[in-house]
């Protein structure tokens, strides 16, 4: 197994590293500290990154995109996340749905949605799954409860579907141009059979954005409510078939859950790289008890553990990316996501310990990394996700 980078992969990595250092890192803490839910967002950094290809890099070449491989995508995610985890996610969130469009959408849908996506530097996408009363049961619905899962209703009227209900905590919710929305087209059967996936662009009659959520971590990244009040969506906007929401999102094993697994793990790797570098620099330049911190054994042990965990995560992440490029998909993607959750919590907290009192100040970057790392426990490390991974292993 050869993990050496080819010229194209190295080029993407160097471009992302340069952009992260020159454009993202100088604004990272400033954006994080802006009060409010929407206020930390900055369209200028999205536009700048988009012009370099960081928003569209997963679009296949036959549709006018860069068509990068998964190793390249992983390299870019990690480099951007090293400067700011939330900004990295704002870019990579679009790759997930680029994969899905390429694998599961019709030529007409690709024409209507991929071309505008490529042409507009402010065109970002999201997926509407979670609802106020339906969260984990969307991802692992109880087999004996036909009513479990999302409740947003879709009823057909001619060539249109009428959607009523709401979604919450939706990625890119306040800024998105296109959303993939799971709705219940048959409320009398299990959500796996009665759910349908719709493509809903902004401006759809009856569709509006509700509350924008204020968060402790990932302050830049936007999450909001999607409100549907007799929203009229064309039948031509269904992904796959009616009652095939699960099949549509999983037919492409890299377009939904499995790419999301790799995405979060690669992002965590960038955060851990930042934490390790911060701890090393701080320990080399600050003294306690007349000695530099790096000379004290407890600090040495902490930094050693940070290095070991980060390098283990790096190996795991790039193995999974390589497997995706070989079209070999396994439970490893889910496992690396779970592992990244444990690693990012531990590494960012050790970094704060090395910084001591300075690490606990609200304006300290060490404290920001800990807050960003908290997000993984809600996205990657919760009990439902771990059960899902076990189910993959057992098959």
CATH superfamily of the largest domain: Butyryl-CoA Dehydrogenase, subunit A, domain 3
Helix content: 40-55%
Low-pLDDT stretches: 250-255
H and E string: HHHHHEHEEEHEEEEHHEEHHHHH
Q: List how many beta strands DSSP finds.
A: 10
Total number of domains: 3
Question: What is this structure's SSE topology?
Answer:
Elements: H1 7-32, H2 43-51, H3 70-83, H4 85-104, H5 107-119, E1 125-128, H6 136-139, E2 153-157, E3 160-171, E4 178-184, H7 191-194, E5 195-201, E6 207-212, E7 223-234, E8 238-239, H8 245-251, H9 257-285, E9 287-288, E10 291-292, H10 297-325, H11 332-355, H12 365-373, H13 376-379, H14 383-394
Helix pairs in contact: 1-3, 3-4, 3-9, 4-9, 9-10, 9-11, 10-11, 11-12
Tell me about this structure.
By secondary structure, the chain is α+β, with helices and mostly antiparallel strands. It folds into 3 domains: 7-119, Acyl-CoA dehydrogenase/oxidase, N-terminal domain (Butyryl-Coa Dehydrogenase, subunit A, domain 1, Orthogonal Bundle); 125-250, Butyryl-CoA Dehydrogenase, subunit A, domain 2 (Beta Barrel), CATH 2.40.110.10; 256-394, Butyryl-CoA Dehydrogenase, subunit A, domain 3 (Up-down Bundle). It has 14 helices and 10 strands. The chain has a 4-stranded mixed β-sheet with strand order 1-4-5-8. It has a 4-stranded antiparallel β-sheet with strand order 2-3-7-6, with no helix packed on it. A two-stranded antiparallel ribbon has the order 9-10. β9 (287-288) and β10 (291-292) form a beta hairpin. α9 packs parallel to α11. The chain is globular, with a radius of gyration of 21 Å. The two termini are 25 Å apart. Residues 250-255 have low confidence and may be disordered.
């Amino acid at each position: 197994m050869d993990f050496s980078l080819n010229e194209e992969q190295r080029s993407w990595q160097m471009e992302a590293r340069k952009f992260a250092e020159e454009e993202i890192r100088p604004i990272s803490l400033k954006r994080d500290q802006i009060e409010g839910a929407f206020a930390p967002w900055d369209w200028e950094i999205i536009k700048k990154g988009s012009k370099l290809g960081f928003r569209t890099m997963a679009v296949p070449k036959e549709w006018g995109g860069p068509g990068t491989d998964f190793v390249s995508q992983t390299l870019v995610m990690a480099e951007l996340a090293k400067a700011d985890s939330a900004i990295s996610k704002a870019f990579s969130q679009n790759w997930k749905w680029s994969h899905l469009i390429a694998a599961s959408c019709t030529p007409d849908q690709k024409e209507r949605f991929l071309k505008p996506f490529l042409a507009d530097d402010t065109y970002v996408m999201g997926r509407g799954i979670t609802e106020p009363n339906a969260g984990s049961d969307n991802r692992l619905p109880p087999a004996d409860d036909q009513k479990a899962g999302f409740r947003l209703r879709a009823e057909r009227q001619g060539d249109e579907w009428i959607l009523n209900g709401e979604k919450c905590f939706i990625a890119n919710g306040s800024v998105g141009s296109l959303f993939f929305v799971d709705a219940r087209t048959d409320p009398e059967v299990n959500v796996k059979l009665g759910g349908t996936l719709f493509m809903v662009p902004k401006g759809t009659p009856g569709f509006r954005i509700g509350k924008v959520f204020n968060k402790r971590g990932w302050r830049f990244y936007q999450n909001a409510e999607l409100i549907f009040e007799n929203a009229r969506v064309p039948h031509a906007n269904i992904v796959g078939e009616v009652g095939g929401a699960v099949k549509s999102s999983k037919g492409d094993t890299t377009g939904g859950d499995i790419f999301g697994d790799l995405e979060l793990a690669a992002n965590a790797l960038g955060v851990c790289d930042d934490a390790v570098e911060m701890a090393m620099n701080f320990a080399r330049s600050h003294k306690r008890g007349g000695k530099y911190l790096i000379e004290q054994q407890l600090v040495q042990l902490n930094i050693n553990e940070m290095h070991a965990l980060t390098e283990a995560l790096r190996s795991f992440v790039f193995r999974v990316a390589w497997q995706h490029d070989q079209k070999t998909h396994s439970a490893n993607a889910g496992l690396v996501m779970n592992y990244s959750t444990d690693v990012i919590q531990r590494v960012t907290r050790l970094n704060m310990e090395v910084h001591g009192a300075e690490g606990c100040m609200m304006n300290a970057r060490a404290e920001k990394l800990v807050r960003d790392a908290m997000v993984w426990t809600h996205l990657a490390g919760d009990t439902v996700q771990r059960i899902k991974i076990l189910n993959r292993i057992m098959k």
